[in-house]
Amino acid sequence: MSDNITSTRSGQRSGLMVGRSHTSRPAATVDPEPIAVDLGSAHLRIWLGPGRVLSVPVGQGLRTPVVRRGRIVDGPACAAELRRLLREHRTPVPVGALIVACRPVLATTADQEATRRVLTAVFAPSRLLFVDSVRAGAIGAGAVAGTLLLVDIGAQLTEVAVLDEGRVVAARRADIGTRDLNHAATVAMLAEATAGLIRELRRAPAVRPLISASLARGVIVVGDGATRPDLTARLVATLGTAVHRAASPRTAVLTGASLAATAATRHPVGN
Fold first, then answer.
1. Each residue of 21-69: pLDDT tens digit?
2. Is 242 helix (H, G, I), strand (E, B) or coil?
């Protein structure tokens, strides 16, 4: 797997028993299908296989949100929301599956541990992999090859990363997103915040050539911000380069995580 994917293992592995043994050989086991999860600030999304995506708005019907600015702020409530989502869609919990979970770029160890606790409580995975959301977004947008600059403008978080052949070289994030446009922020402010993150990246001498090369290619934008023509137009004017919107920007990160999950089951690697 990539340098941008880390894994943890549980102490137990389970599968579905198939057939009946008539010899001394042990019964065959079939591992459950892999699962991808994106715990965003706007939606909790679960991928359970081709064409099977479950989604619920964060904090719908709750007094307080369970995820804020890309961080889980109420683990038990987040786990309850995921269980409710599975229950309402009459989807049994596939115990022992491989889980690939998206994490915001520059997530802390505490942030990752909070996510691990929630997903372990809900799915009891045999293995849990974390993939940076910016890398998942690049995979989901079909733009992994070469050097690229990816911008993920979500509901409450904006992430910017330079990737080289799918590896995150450098990244920045800011606690601002499209939901802030309903309050004090403006489109111009969000575009300028994004440009500011890119300028921060350019200050590193080792990263500067990669940013120049990626800007010549154009910026790839995923997330809710990519669905707003006024914002993408402002980014073009602010950055002075082309802005390419992913085909399905709101779900590009989950799509990339699902592809990573499928690849991980086909080409497993040890820790």
1. 334 444 445 568 899 999 998 899 999 998 899 998 886 555 578 999 9
2. coil
Digit-coded pLDDT (tens) for 178-232: 999 988 899 999 999 999 999 999 999 999 999 999 999 999 999 999 999 999 9
**The overall pTM is greater than 0.90:** no
Task: Give the SS3 label for residue 221.
Answer: strand
Q: Distances from the Cα of 20 to the Cαs of 16, 23, 82, 170, in angstroms?
A: 12, 9, 34, 52
At 271, the pLDDT band (50, 70, 90 cuts) reads: very low
Strands 158-164 and 16-18: unpaired
Q: How far is CA 90 from the centre of its chain?
A: 24
Residue with tokens 């409580």, as numbered in its chain: 121
- Cα–Cα distance for residue pair 140/82, rounded to 1 Å: 23
The identity of residue 118, as a single letter, is V
Interatomic CA distance for residues 102 and 121, integer angstroms: 17
Return left, alpha or beta for 170; rule: phi > 0 is left, psi -120 to 50 is alpha, else beta: beta
Residues 142 and 195: their CA atoms lie apart, in Å, by 23
Q: Angle CA(154)–CA(251)–CA(143) in degrees, nearest 5?
A: 95
What does the pLDDT read at residue 93?
A: 77
